[in-house]
């Protein structure tokens, strides 16, 4: 299985510059779920500009795909654990050049907006030991991001099956309902004013 995953990741790394997908799918919300995300979709659409112009607002928001990963202490976590907070969920790997390029911006975003209401949840999908992704974060001076790691790489395939990943990196903004407000296929400057305005608009919708 590990060999198959390595082969698959090698393929995705080679096509990582190609981002585009249709027929998006996800977990259909039950009655009343994702109401805030649905109501907020029209507000978000005009904010997908500049540094986040490739961000795709979900016109019909769905419950976020769920999967397990490990935190810095080795404890099992899952996407659903963050319900009640807005999160920017990002999948990255050390072999992914665009991922490495955008990581300082993700760290800066966490330093700027990180709170009980918002977190950048950047999950490394590097297979096996967490040593190398930890070392990379240390080398770039990332001080604000919590360390999260999926040593199996299954997180990528979960997002891919839901239509929210085709290459790396893959990023979702998930609101406090646990619903996908939108997603990005590819890298972005997540510490930019454009990105911050987008995220704050998702958070503001929770206050209504």
Automatic annotation (TrEMBL):
<dbReference type="InterPro" id="IPR036249">
    <property type="entry name" value="Thioredoxin-like_sf"/>
</dbReference>
<dbReference type="InterPro" id="IPR000866">
    <property type="entry name" value="AhpC/TSA"/>
</dbReference>
<keyword id="KW-0676">Redox-active center</keyword>
<dbReference type="InterPro" id="IPR013766">
    <property type="entry name" value="Thioredoxin_domain"/>
</dbReference>
<dbReference type="Pfam" id="PF00578">
    <property type="entry name" value="AhpC-TSA"/>
</dbReference>
<dbReference type="GO" id="GO:0015036">
    <property type="term" value="F:disulfide oxidoreductase activity"/>
</dbReference>
<dbReference type="InterPro" id="IPR050455">
    <property type="entry name" value="Tpx_Peroxidase_subfamily"/>
</dbReference>
<protein>
    <recommendedName>
        <fullName>Thioredoxin domain-containing protein</fullName>
    </recommendedName>
</protein>
<dbReference type="GO" id="GO:0016209">
    <property type="term" value="F:antioxidant activity"/>
</dbReference>
<feature type="domain" description="Thioredoxin">
    <location>
        <begin position="58"/>
        <end position="204"/>
    </location>
</feature>
<dbReference type="InterPro" id="IPR017937">
    <property type="entry name" value="Thioredoxin_CS"/>
</dbReference>
């Amino acid at each position: 299985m590990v060999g198959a995953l390595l082969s698959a990741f090698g393929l995705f790394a080679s096509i990582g510059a190609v981002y585009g997908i249709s027929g998006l799918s996800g977990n259909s919300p039950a009655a009343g779920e994702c109401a805030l995300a649905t109501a907020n979709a029209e507000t978000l659409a005009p904010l997908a500009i500049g540094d986040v112009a490739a961000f795709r607002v979900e016109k019909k928001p769905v419950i976020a795909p769920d999967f397990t990963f490990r935190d810095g202490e080795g404890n099992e976590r899952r996407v659903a654990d963050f319900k009640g907070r807005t999160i920017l969920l990002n999948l990255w790997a050390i072999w992914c050049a665009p991922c490495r390029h955008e990581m300082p911006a993700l760290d800066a975003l966490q330093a700027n907006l990180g709170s009980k209401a918002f977190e950048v949840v950047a999950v490394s999908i590097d297979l096996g030991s967490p040593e190398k992704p930890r070392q990379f974060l240390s080398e770039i001076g990332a001080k604000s991001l919590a360390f999260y790691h999926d040593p199996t790489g299954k997180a990528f395939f979960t997002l891919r099956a839901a239509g929210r990943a085709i290459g790396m990196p893959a990023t979702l903004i998930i609101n406090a309902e646990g619903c996908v407000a939108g997603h990005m296929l590819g890298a972005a400057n997540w510490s930019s004013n454009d990105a911050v305005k987008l995220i704050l608009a998702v958070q503001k919708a929770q206050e209504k």
